[in-house]
Design a protein that fits this description.
Blueprint (H helix, E strand, L loop, with lengths): L1 H23 L4 E5 L2 E5 L1 H55 L3 H14 L3 H14 L3 H12 L5 H14 L3 H14 L4 H13 L3 H15 L5 H6 L1
Antiparallel strand pairs: 1-2
Helix pairs in contact: 1-2, 2-3, 2-4, 3-4, 4-5, 5-6, 6-7, 7-8, 8-9
């Protein structure tokens, strides 16, 4: 506000000085461009220049005010991110300490507002799984899968949870899809092979053997190959 008052005072002083100067001698300006010509007084040209300068200053002040008005929005975003980071850390520690219910609440909140939603949703799924919340676990894993980097790890966790709950066929179906998506992922291939061994599906295991050898080496897979 002080800047605006100061600007008005300067403009009034400049206008007064310009008026006295024009009263003494208005001057003359002629502008010619191709077939167009404009003639006017020097005082009018100076007045336009002065008004243009004032308009520029006013627009600058308005732009600065708008920028300052946006500052609370940016501050709110930074505050939300900081809170989400604290929730993620606290949720992880609560999960380690065995406080699954508290951990789940904190991690879900971190997944909704934080910069690390993938980690938050995966940990939230772990907390829900330990509480036997099947629907919540699947929901959190779906949220993690929506991240392009989370499809494999979320699918692998889904397969592990299915094995823990006694659904090997569901785990096998998930692992087959993951193995086709990431044919060189050692963790997925090894888990898939273990499921096939437990089900004694030797034919499919033999078909998978070349990929296992490329991933782990022939010597490492010798026992599994002989058994198959």
């Amino acid at each position: 506000m002080k800047k605006v008052v100061l600007l008005v005072i300067i403009a009034l002083v400049a206008a007064l000085a310009l008026g006295r100067w024009m009263a003494a001698d208005s001057g003359y300006v002629l502008i010619i461009r191709d077939s167009v010509s404009v003639d006017t007084t020097l005082g009018f040209v100076v007045l336009l220049a002065l008004l243009g300068a004032v308009a520029l200053v006013v627009l600058t002040l308005l732009g600065n005010a708008a920028w300052n008005a946006m500052e609370p929005v940016r501050a709110t975003r930074r505050w939300k991110k900081a809170v989400a980071e604290r929730r993620l850390r606290s949720g992880f520690l609560q999960l380690v300490d065995g406080e699954q219910e508290k951990a789940e609440r904190l991690l879900v909140a971190a997944g909704e507002d934080g910069d690390w939603p993938l980690v938050a949703w995966l940990l939230a799924a772990e907390a829900a799984q330990e509480q036997d919340k099947v629907e919540a676990t699947q929901h959190y894993l779906e949220q993690a899968s929506s991240d392009r980097r989370g499809r494999l790890v979320a699918g692998l966790m889904k397969a592990r949870f299915a094995l823990e709950d006694g659904y090997p066929e569901q785990a096998r179906s998930e692992l087959k899809v993951l193995a086709d998506m990431a044919p060189r992922n050692k963790r997925i291939l090894n888990t898939y092979a273990e499921v096939l061994e437990s089900q004694k599906d030797w034919q499919v295991l033999c078909a998978l053997m070349p990929r296992l050898k490329r991933a782990f080496g022939e010597a490492n897979q010798g026992r599994r190959e002989r058994r198959a």
